[in-house]
Amino acid sequence: MTGHLRRALLALSILAGTTAPLVAHPRDDAFAPVVETAMLAPPDAARGDATVSLAKSADFAFEIVRPERPDGRTMVLLHGSGGDETSLVRLATRIAPHATLLGIRGRVTQDGRRRWYRRLTPVTFDQHDVCVESEAFARFLGRTALELGIDLDRTVFLGYSNGANLIAATALLHPGLVRKAALLRPMSVLDQPPTPPLAGASLLMIAGASDRTYAPFAPALEQLLESCGAVVDSRSISSDHMIGDEDARIVAEWLAAPPAK
Fold first, then answer.
1. Would the pTM count as exceeding 0.70?
2. pLDDT tens, 172-184?
3. Rounded CA separation 150/146 (Å)
4. Helix 162-173 and helix 127-148: axis angle, to 10°?
5. Long-range Cβ contacts of 189-198 (<8 Å, 24+ apart)
């Protein structure tokens, strides 16, 4: 079975439900010649307790940015806490100017900030919610790739912080979906992660050397992914939790390098 056929069958296997219609509109942005936006579905009832305001949308909002001269690649962008589907567009355009960009918004809003799953403390997370949101993301991506004609064999995931963590969790929970990903300021969010075979997956991790909260957790994620057979290129740069020019340069060079053997 070819890789393309295998990925197509994977996409079909996670289809479920329907999506909101796409609405095309122009935007005054040199990096976005054509933009299509999916309307966010009405939110579900809020849940939480006296100290946590938590709400969850029924589906994912997203934005697709098509370059004037596409090269056939797609970058799927997952923002950090407090971001949205547009947060990584400019960074991604600098990294891969001819790639189609699919920016997605996390469904969870906690204490007024958009997220990909519920957190309990800055470094502990609701395990059930991580699994639920990873599965919802996998289903959404499968059907959206088919509807938009996205080739998952030529797709790169780019995630920052909260979004990078969801990509890593999805790679473990839904093996075969995430084959190439750049994870900026990541950590593992699964307390008891599965260890599926990830041979063929290639991941770049970039930690900030002065990111005292999250950088100490990066080595454990690297070890976990490598133990599953993934090829992991782990870097530490002179930065805190914020991302910028050095991240863009490293990711662009990593994408341009020949595949590791």
1. yes
2. 999 999 999 999 9
3. 6
4. 80
5. 189/117, 189/125, 189/130, 189/165, 190/127, 190/130, 191/127, 192/127, 193/169, 193/224, 195/224, 195/227, 195/228, 196/172, 196/228, 197/228, 197/229, 198/171, 198/172, 198/225, 198/228, 198/229, 198/230
